[in-house]
Each structure stands twice: as C-alpha cells, then as structure tokens.
Write a structure and sequence with these properties.
The chain has helices at residues 6-14, 55-60, 78-93, 97-105, 111-122, 126-144, 149-155, 161-172, 176-183; strands at 25-28, 33-35, 49-52, 64-65. The protein is α+β, with helices and mostly antiparallel strands and 185 residues long. The chain has a four-stranded mixed β-sheet with strand order 3-1-2-4. Helix 3 packs antiparallel against helix 4 (97-105), helix 3 (78-93) crosses helix 5 and helix 6 crosses helix 9. The longest helix has 19 residues, at 126-144. It is elongated and about 75 Å long.
Amino acid sequence: MTKLTKDEMWKAVSENNINYDGMFFYAVKSTGIYCRPSCKSKVPKRTNVLFFDNANQAETAGFRPCKRCRSDILKYQPIKDIAKRTKNLIDDMFHLKYELNEEISQLGITQHRLREIFKEEYGVTLTKYISNLQLEEGKRLLVETDEKIIDIAYSIGFGSLSSFYRFFKKQTGKSPAVYRKESLK
C-alpha cells in the first residue's frame, strides 16, 4: 500500500471518511486527543493536526484517545453492538413477549431509537422481524409436529387462537389447519 499524503489524509479527516479508519490516525494539538479519520467531532483547524500511522504512535507522542470515536478500539461499533444484542434477544425470546420487552428495556436505549437502529442495521422493522420468526416457527410446528394449533399459537407468542389464525391467514393466505393439511399431503 502506498503511503498517503498529508493532503489525502486531511481530505479524509475533513470528510469523516470511514474508509480510511485503521490506515492512519490524526491528533489535535489544541485538545491533546487523537481520532480516527471518521470521527464525527468538529473538524479541527488544519494547523492543529498531526498525522500518525497507528494509535500507539499517537499515544507515545502524548495524545489520549477520543471518547467519541474510541480511536483506541478500532472495531468499536456501539450501534452495531446494540442491534446485534437486540437481534440475539429476539431470536431467543420472540415467543416470550413480556420477558423480551423486559430484557430489551435493560439495553439502556429508548424504544424509538432502538427501532431506528434495528431497521438501519437489518433493513426490517422490529415488528416485522418478530412476525417473520413467529410465522416460520408456526409453519415448522404445523408441519413437523402434531401439536394442537392452540398450543402452537401460545408457544410462539400469541395470546389467543383467533389472533394467531388472523395473523397466519394474512401472511400465508391459508388458515393454520389448511396449511397443515396441505403440507402433509
């Protein structure tokens, strides 16, 4: 890889370009902090900026890591971590509505922001994601088991048989009983 010029590095810093993260770090003399090129902090004056090949060089020169971009942890991505933790909770507990809501409330983020983060990360709303899990598990149980439909409905998180029937028919165009019967042919 060819070494970047100071002008190329400055352009990356002034544009908060994430593609340069890990290729170099910049430090701001007036604050004593070093950052990644993608840091969303206010763009410093060019005359106050020094460039380093790695975080260790910046620290050796007396700069401390930025608390905003966490320049000391290259792979730190708190938004992705929250989205992944939420997805894992849903995957494990989608059928336990109240317990799931309790666990999600412990993430320390508002429901509104969580919905935004999840949709941004996975391209689907939380509600749609949970519905997809319920539908797939409902289909699987209808075909692979001989459990009563009411037991399947409760086991995948529905509070009543009628709500499961409405949901299932809306999603598949068939009632659970018809779906089971046709799938077993």
